[in-house]
Protein backbone atom coordinates (compact mmCIF):
# COMPACT_ATOMS: atom_id res chain seq x y z
CA UNK A 1 0.00 0.00 0.00
CA UNK A 2 1.21 3.52 -0.86
CA UNK A 3 0.32 6.95 0.52
CA UNK A 4 -0.14 9.59 -2.17
CA UNK A 5 -1.40 12.94 -0.91
CA UNK A 6 -4.48 14.27 -2.66
CA UNK A 7 -2.64 17.44 -3.71
CA UNK A 8 0.27 15.59 -5.31
CA UNK A 9 0.36 15.65 -9.11
CA UNK A 10 1.50 12.57 -11.06
CA UNK A 11 1.91 12.68 -14.83
CA UNK A 12 0.69 10.09 -17.29
CA UNK A 13 2.34 6.67 -17.34
CA UNK A 14 4.09 7.33 -14.03
CA UNK A 15 4.37 4.22 -11.85
CA UNK A 16 4.80 3.86 -8.09
CA UNK A 17 6.09 0.73 -6.34
CA UNK A 18 4.95 -0.65 -3.00
CA UNK A 19 4.96 1.17 0.37
CA UNK A 20 6.01 4.54 -1.07
CA UNK A 21 4.98 7.98 0.27
CA UNK A 22 4.34 11.05 -1.86
CA UNK A 23 3.62 14.14 0.24
CA UNK A 24 1.52 17.20 -0.42
CA UNK A 25 2.21 19.44 -3.39
CA UNK A 26 4.70 17.13 -5.09
CA UNK A 27 4.78 17.61 -8.86
CA UNK A 28 5.88 14.50 -10.74
CA UNK A 29 6.20 14.44 -14.53
CA UNK A 30 5.20 11.85 -17.10
CA UNK A 31 6.85 8.44 -17.47
CA UNK A 32 8.48 8.66 -14.05
CA UNK A 33 9.28 5.36 -12.33
CA UNK A 34 9.17 5.38 -8.53
CA UNK A 35 10.42 2.26 -6.76
CA UNK A 36 9.45 0.59 -3.50
CA UNK A 37 9.62 2.36 -0.12
CA UNK A 38 10.48 5.71 -1.69
CA UNK A 39 9.70 8.95 0.18
CA UNK A 40 9.01 12.07 -1.88
CA UNK A 41 8.69 15.04 0.46
CA UNK A 42 6.35 17.99 0.12
CA UNK A 43 6.45 20.17 -3.01
CA UNK A 44 9.29 18.24 -4.64
CA UNK A 45 9.47 18.70 -8.43
CA UNK A 46 10.49 15.68 -10.54
CA UNK A 47 11.00 15.93 -14.30
CA UNK A 48 9.69 13.64 -17.02
CA UNK A 49 11.28 10.24 -17.47
CA UNK A 50 13.16 10.22 -14.19
CA UNK A 51 13.72 7.03 -12.17
CA UNK A 52 13.73 6.96 -8.36
CA UNK A 53 15.04 3.61 -7.10
CA UNK A 54 14.02 1.66 -4.00
CA UNK A 55 14.41 3.30 -0.60
CA UNK A 56 15.38 6.74 -1.88
CA UNK A 57 14.39 9.88 0.04
CA UNK A 58 14.01 13.03 -2.04
CA UNK A 59 13.22 16.57 -0.94
CA UNK A 60 14.18 15.98 2.70
CA UNK A 61 14.11 18.98 5.03
CA UNK A 62 17.54 19.42 6.69
CA UNK A 63 17.68 19.53 10.47
CA UNK A 64 21.16 20.42 11.74
CA UNK A 65 22.35 19.67 15.25
CA UNK A 66 22.33 22.53 17.76
CA UNK A 67 26.13 22.50 17.68
CA UNK A 68 26.38 22.58 13.87
CA UNK A 69 28.32 25.47 12.34
CA UNK A 70 25.67 26.00 9.67
CA UNK A 71 22.12 26.59 10.87
CA UNK A 72 18.91 26.94 8.85
CA UNK A 73 18.03 30.66 8.78
CA UNK A 74 15.67 30.77 5.78
CA UNK A 75 12.84 28.92 4.12
CA UNK A 76 14.40 26.32 1.84
CA UNK A 77 12.73 25.94 -1.57
CA UNK A 78 11.64 22.55 -2.89
CA UNK A 79 13.99 20.11 -4.56
CA UNK A 80 14.01 20.40 -8.36
CA UNK A 81 15.03 17.17 -10.06
CA UNK A 82 15.43 17.43 -13.84
CA UNK A 83 14.10 15.19 -16.56
CA UNK A 84 15.53 11.75 -17.31
CA UNK A 85 17.59 11.61 -14.13
CA UNK A 86 18.30 8.46 -12.14
CA UNK A 87 18.31 8.45 -8.34
CA UNK A 88 19.85 5.29 -6.90
CA UNK A 89 18.64 3.01 -4.13
CA UNK A 90 18.77 4.48 -0.60
CA UNK A 91 20.01 7.82 -1.90
CA UNK A 92 19.05 11.00 -0.02
CA UNK A 93 18.59 14.37 -1.74
CA UNK A 94 17.63 17.38 0.38
CA UNK A 95 15.31 20.30 -0.30
CA UNK A 96 16.90 23.27 -1.99
CA UNK A 97 18.98 21.23 -4.42
CA UNK A 98 18.63 21.79 -8.17
CA UNK A 99 19.61 18.81 -10.32
CA UNK A 100 20.07 19.13 -14.09
CA UNK A 101 18.68 16.74 -16.67
CA UNK A 102 20.09 13.27 -17.37
CA UNK A 103 22.12 13.24 -14.18
CA UNK A 104 22.82 10.02 -12.28
CA UNK A 105 22.99 10.08 -8.49
CA UNK A 106 23.99 6.54 -7.60
CA UNK A 107 23.08 4.24 -4.72
CA UNK A 108 23.69 5.49 -1.17
CA UNK A 109 24.78 8.98 -2.25
CA UNK A 110 23.79 12.10 -0.30
CA UNK A 111 23.18 15.54 -1.83
CA UNK A 112 22.59 18.35 0.66
CA UNK A 113 20.58 21.56 0.43
CA UNK A 114 21.65 24.59 -1.64
CA UNK A 115 23.46 22.39 -4.15
CA UNK A 116 23.34 23.03 -7.89
CA UNK A 117 24.26 20.15 -10.20
CA UNK A 118 24.39 20.56 -13.97
CA UNK A 119 23.20 18.23 -16.71
CA UNK A 120 24.75 14.86 -17.59
CA UNK A 121 26.61 14.62 -14.28
CA UNK A 122 27.51 11.37 -12.53
CA UNK A 123 27.52 11.30 -8.73
CA UNK A 124 28.91 7.88 -7.80
CA UNK A 125 27.97 5.33 -5.18
CA UNK A 126 28.21 6.57 -1.58
CA UNK A 127 29.41 10.05 -2.60
CA UNK A 128 28.58 12.92 -0.23
CA UNK A 129 27.94 16.39 -1.66
CA UNK A 130 27.62 18.89 1.18
CA UNK A 131 25.66 22.15 1.12
CA UNK A 132 26.48 25.27 -0.93
CA UNK A 133 28.22 23.27 -3.66
CA UNK A 134 28.05 23.89 -7.41
CA UNK A 135 28.86 21.12 -9.89
CA UNK A 136 29.12 21.83 -13.62
CA UNK A 137 27.88 19.85 -16.59
CA UNK A 138 29.32 16.44 -17.51
CA UNK A 139 31.39 16.23 -14.34
CA UNK A 140 32.00 12.77 -12.87
CA UNK A 141 32.51 12.07 -9.18
CA UNK A 142 33.33 8.46 -8.45
CA UNK A 143 32.47 6.25 -5.48
CA UNK A 144 33.13 7.25 -1.86
CA UNK A 145 34.36 10.77 -2.59
CA UNK A 146 33.54 13.68 -0.27
CA UNK A 147 32.75 17.13 -1.65
CA UNK A 148 32.81 19.57 1.24
CA UNK A 149 30.54 22.59 1.69
CA UNK A 150 31.33 25.77 -0.26
CA UNK A 151 33.11 23.96 -3.09
CA UNK A 152 32.81 24.55 -6.83
CA UNK A 153 33.48 21.93 -9.49
CA UNK A 154 33.25 23.28 -13.02
CA UNK A 155 32.32 21.45 -16.26
CA UNK A 156 34.03 18.21 -17.36
CA UNK A 157 35.79 17.66 -14.03
CA UNK A 158 36.79 14.09 -13.11
CA UNK A 159 37.00 13.10 -9.45
CA UNK A 160 38.32 9.56 -8.88
CA UNK A 161 37.20 7.33 -5.97
CA UNK A 162 37.82 8.29 -2.34
CA UNK A 163 38.87 11.90 -2.98
CA UNK A 164 38.47 14.20 0.04
CA UNK A 165 37.97 17.96 -0.10
CA UNK A 166 38.17 20.12 3.04
CA UNK A 167 37.09 23.63 4.00
CA UNK A 168 38.23 24.47 7.55
CA UNK A 169 41.89 25.01 8.41
CA UNK A 170 40.92 25.57 12.06
CA UNK A 171 39.05 22.24 12.33
CA UNK A 172 36.27 23.68 14.46
CA UNK A 173 38.39 25.91 16.73
CA UNK A 174 38.24 29.72 17.21
CA UNK A 175 35.61 32.17 16.04
CA UNK A 176 37.92 33.33 13.24
CA UNK A 177 37.17 30.21 11.25
CA UNK A 178 33.64 31.32 10.33
CA UNK A 179 34.88 33.98 7.91
CA UNK A 180 37.49 31.68 6.40
CA UNK A 181 35.55 28.52 5.58
CA UNK A 182 36.15 27.81 1.91
CA UNK A 183 36.05 24.59 -0.06
CA UNK A 184 37.90 23.58 -3.19
CA UNK A 185 37.55 25.22 -6.60
CA UNK A 186 38.16 22.66 -9.33
CA UNK A 187 38.29 24.33 -12.73
CA UNK A 188 37.08 23.04 -16.08
CA UNK A 189 38.59 19.78 -17.27
CA UNK A 190 40.68 19.13 -14.16
CA UNK A 191 41.21 15.52 -13.03
CA UNK A 192 41.83 14.43 -9.46
CA UNK A 193 43.24 10.96 -8.78
CA UNK A 194 42.01 8.41 -6.27
CA UNK A 195 42.40 9.05 -2.53
CA UNK A 196 43.78 12.56 -3.08
CA UNK A 197 43.18 15.23 -0.43
CA UNK A 198 42.54 18.87 -1.31
CA UNK A 199 43.10 21.38 1.50
CA UNK A 200 40.71 24.29 2.22
CA UNK A 201 40.41 27.06 -0.36
CA UNK A 202 42.68 25.44 -2.94
CA UNK A 203 42.10 26.09 -6.64
CA UNK A 204 42.81 23.22 -9.02
CA UNK A 205 43.43 25.01 -12.32
CA UNK A 206 41.98 24.06 -15.71
CA UNK A 207 43.18 20.72 -17.07
CA UNK A 208 45.31 19.98 -14.00
CA UNK A 209 46.03 16.27 -13.44
CA UNK A 210 46.37 15.40 -9.75
CA UNK A 211 48.04 12.01 -9.31
CA UNK A 212 46.50 9.42 -7.00
CA UNK A 213 47.20 9.90 -3.30
CA UNK A 214 48.38 13.49 -3.62
CA UNK A 215 47.89 16.05 -0.86
CA UNK A 216 47.26 19.40 -2.53
CA UNK A 217 48.38 22.28 -0.31
CA UNK A 218 48.58 25.15 -2.82
CA UNK A 219 46.92 26.32 -6.02
CA UNK A 220 47.96 24.55 -9.21
CA UNK A 221 48.95 25.78 -12.66
CA UNK A 222 46.91 25.01 -15.78
CA UNK A 223 47.67 21.84 -17.76
CA UNK A 224 50.17 20.47 -15.27
CA UNK A 225 50.58 17.07 -13.63
CA UNK A 226 51.21 17.19 -9.88
CA UNK A 227 51.95 14.36 -7.47
CA UNK A 228 53.17 13.64 -3.95
CA UNK A 229 52.55 14.92 -0.44
CA UNK A 230 52.70 17.81 -0.57
CA UNK A 231 51.88 17.75 -4.27
CA UNK A 232 54.51 19.22 -6.60
CA UNK A 233 54.90 19.79 -10.32
CA UNK A 234 55.89 16.68 -12.28
CA UNK A 235 55.34 17.57 -15.94
CA UNK A 236 52.88 19.16 -18.34
CA UNK A 237 49.71 17.33 -19.36
CA UNK A 238 50.17 15.76 -22.84
CA UNK A 239 48.37 17.68 -25.59
CA UNK A 240 46.36 14.63 -26.64
CA UNK A 241 44.72 14.48 -23.19
CA UNK A 242 43.41 18.06 -23.23
CA UNK A 243 39.76 18.81 -23.94
From TrEMBL:
GO molecular function, one term: transferase activity
UniProt entry keywords in alphabetical sequence: Repeat, Transferase
Alphabetical list of SUPFAM superfamilies matching this protein: Trimeric LpxA-like enzymes
Domain of life: Bacteria
InterPro entries linked: Hexapep, Hexapep_transf_CS, Trans_hexapeptide_repeat, Trimer_LpxA-like_sf
CDD domains: LbH_WxcM_N_like (cd03358)
Matching PANTHER family: ACETYLTRANSFERASE, ACYL-[ACYL-CARRIER-PROTEIN]--UDP-N-ACETYLGLUCOSAMINE O-ACYLTRANSFERASE
Protein name in UniProt: N-acetyltransferase
Species this protein is from: Psychrobacillus psychrodurans
Amino acid sequence: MNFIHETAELGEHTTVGHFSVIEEGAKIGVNVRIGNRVTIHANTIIGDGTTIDDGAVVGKQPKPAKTSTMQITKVIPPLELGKECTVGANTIIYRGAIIGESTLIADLATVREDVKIGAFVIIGRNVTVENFVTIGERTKIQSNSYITAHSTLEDHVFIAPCVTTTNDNFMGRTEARFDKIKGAIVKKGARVGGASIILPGITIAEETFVAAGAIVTKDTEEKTVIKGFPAKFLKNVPEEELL
